[in-house]
Design a protein that fits this description.
The chain is of the alpha/beta class. 19% of the residues lie in helices and 28% in strands. Helix 3 links the parallel strand 6 and strand 7.
Length: 576
């Protein structure tokens, strides 16, 4: 049966924009839409510009910039949206990352030489078009005054290969390049991620298309370690004001928060770092509406999109009013504006909030870890033995690559769209479950989350996935934060640290904080084959056994950051 795919080309041009083919220094021309505020024909009004450089077709419904631009132009900003090199209407080779710094500089240079430009430029956008902002910062054009990167990372290498860590193969993330970075168009097709060798599925796709993704080849079957910021790192460039916009349910929130925390502590950068953090995912679906109903799906429903866009764009416009137009004082901005999931919006002078504290839960009572919910205990007091080795406990779980633990979502970028109940996962005998006691008062998480485990395994290399979850009184289980690590058997004498990123989340009375520990998460991640072979090319698989140790000299634990729950104001006395 022939391999089938859908080729997605450029959408029609926006009616409210004018397209230019901006010339880069090497002669390549990049398709560039300009949206201008309303002004009289022939007047000499000049505007600050907001530049967006993206690979997803500047005119597509997916990025909806014809609608976003109206919000910016209504506030007096020109909006410039550009297809990056090699994508859709732009010329040049289709290769991500490596030319974005130079092209970003030259795009800004093109803007400031337009008659309608007042010489001031900011940048805005999500994911890859958050990355292009950081690439432009590295180029240090003097007209670039502020950026608003959303749900992104300054160096995408840190997403799939964090410094100093071995991680499982994030198949969903690597597959992105096989769909979007083949040539000017994008390609939709389905892959059987359970077939072996899985790499052959992508080779078949490239043969059918007649072209291949060069960046996919740098990541699969072996990562080359090539940085997506090959020149000056943006953090070593001239500081510019940054509004980091993150989502607590974004699948790359760990990388983005790592960027924010580094810059917030770096002299020169620290004074101009701002954080906006919402209970949203990568596609801007909201926890408050999850799972998403058809009438609330902004990806398909025009009314839902109209309701969503002001909350999406206004924080950036307010930020640019300060750092591009200069019409509002810096004091009008809070350093941190964040949403407590199932709670309210708050502001703070720093992140984590200065009043927050760490709270550690110790994994205990392991005999119940493979049992039904609520499983074993997350205790707030460790076992401290009088005799070395006393109180040490162990439990085991099996990882079967042919029957992996299901992800329950195929698209974690839109995690809140389906917002799966993980209770069926927690009920599996290859998943360890630990739960804290039922809460009688709210528990507000606000800051980093981490898990430290002592694990050994029978396979040469195995994976450990940890998910911190909310176990409701109705038995439903919902993810709060997650992390994963690939472990070589030779390294298991040491403690295994899993960074689960940051969150802002309220566990309500009657709920429990819980932890799931597994050996796979498929199809989002390629299962470790259990043989030591490369999971991309492995033809066979072998079950393995992992052993979790805790207590005594092996204190496996979960650490969360909590902030005090505000005390409600007393009700006024009758007649007062």
């Amino acid at each position: 049966m022939p391999f089938t795919f859908e080729r997605i080309g450029a959408a029609p041009l926006a009616e409210n924009a004018r397209q230019y083919m901006a010339r880069m220094r090497d002669g390549v021309r990049l398709a560039t839409d300009v949206y201008l505020p309303a002004h009289r024909q022939g007047d000499d009004t000049a505007f600050p510009a907001v530049l967006v450089r993206l690979p997803y077709d500047k005119n597509s419904r997916y990025v909806y910039f014809d609608r976003i631009a109206r919000l910016f132009t209504a506030r007096g900003y020109a909006v410039v949206v550009q297809d990056v090199r090699g994508k859709f209407r732009s010329g040049g080779s289709t290769l991500p990352f490596l030319r974005e710094s130079q092209d970003g500089y030259e795009a800004i240079d093109w803007i400031v030489n337009q008659a309608w430009s007042d010489g001031r430029v900011g940048m805005f956008g999500d994911s890859y078009y958050g990355f292009t902002q950081w690439a432009a910062v590295a180029a240090q054009h003097p007209a670039l005054r502020a950026i608003v990167p959303r749900v992104t990372a300054a160096d995408f290498t840190t997403i799939w290969q964090p410094a100093g860590q071995n991680v499982p193969v994030w198949l969903e993330g690597v597959e992105y390049f096989a769909h979007h970075w083949v040539d000017n168009d994008s390609y939709e097709y389905r892959i059987d991620r359970s077939a072996r060798p899985v790499i052959e599925q992508y080779e078949e796709a490239f043969r059918a298309i007649g072209a291949r993704s060069l960046w996919f080849d740098l990541l699969a079957p072996r990562q080359t370690g090539l940085s997506t910021q090959p020149g000056l790192h943006p953090f070593d460039a001239r500081p510019v004001p940054v509004l980091h916009c993150v989502g607590w349910f974004d699948n790359i929130v760990t990388a983005h928060m790592r960027d924010y925390m580094e810059l917030a502590s770096r002299p020169g950068w620290d004074a101009v770092q701002y954080l906006w953090a919402g209970a949203v995912d990568h596609e801007n679906y909201r926890l408050a509406q999850a799972p998403i109903r058809d009438e609330d799906d902004h990806n398909t429903n025009e009314d839902a999109l109209a309701r969503m866009l002001p909350d999406y764009a206004n924080p950036a416009i307010d930020f640019f009013d300060v750092f591009l137009k200069g019409i509002r004082p810096v004091s009008s901005l809070s350093k941190v504006t964040w949403e407590l999931g199932h709670g309210d919006w708050r502001t703070s002078s720093a992140w984590p909030p200065p009043e927050s504290t760490e709270l550690t839960y110790w994994l205990t009572d392991l005999a119940r870890a493979t049992g039904p919910l609520p499983g074993a205990l997350l205790a707030d007091v460790p076992d401290v033995p009088d005799v070395p080795g006393e109180h040490e406990q162990a439990t085991q779980w099996t990882h079967d690559p042919d029957a992996p633990v299901p992800s329950l979502v195929e698209d974690s970028f839109a995690y809140l769209h389906s917002y799966p109940d993980l209770a069926p996962v927690a009920a599996r005998d290859d998943v360890l479950v630990f739960s804290a006691p039922v809460l009688t008062e709210p528990l507000d998480l606000a800051g980093p989350v981490a898990v430290d485990l002592h694990v050994t395994g029978t396979a040469p290399e195995f994976d450990v996935f940890a998910k911190v979850v909310d176990l409701g009184p109705d038995g439903r289980v919902h993810q709060i934060a997650r992390g994963q690590v690939a472990v070589r058997a030779a390294d298991t004498a040491d403690e295994i640290h899993l960074d689960l990123g940051h969150t802002g989340y309220r566990l309500r009375p009657g709920h429990r904080l819980a932890l799931l520990v597994t050996g796979s998460d498929h199809p989002l991640f390629l299962p470790a084959p259990g043989t030591g072979e490369n999971p991309w090319t492995a033809l066979t698989a072998k079950p393995s056994t992992q052993t979790l140790h805790t207590g005594g000299a092996c204190p496996s634990r979960l650490t969360v950051t909590v902030t005090p729950t505000p005390t409600p104001a007393p009700a006024p006395a009758p007649g007062a």
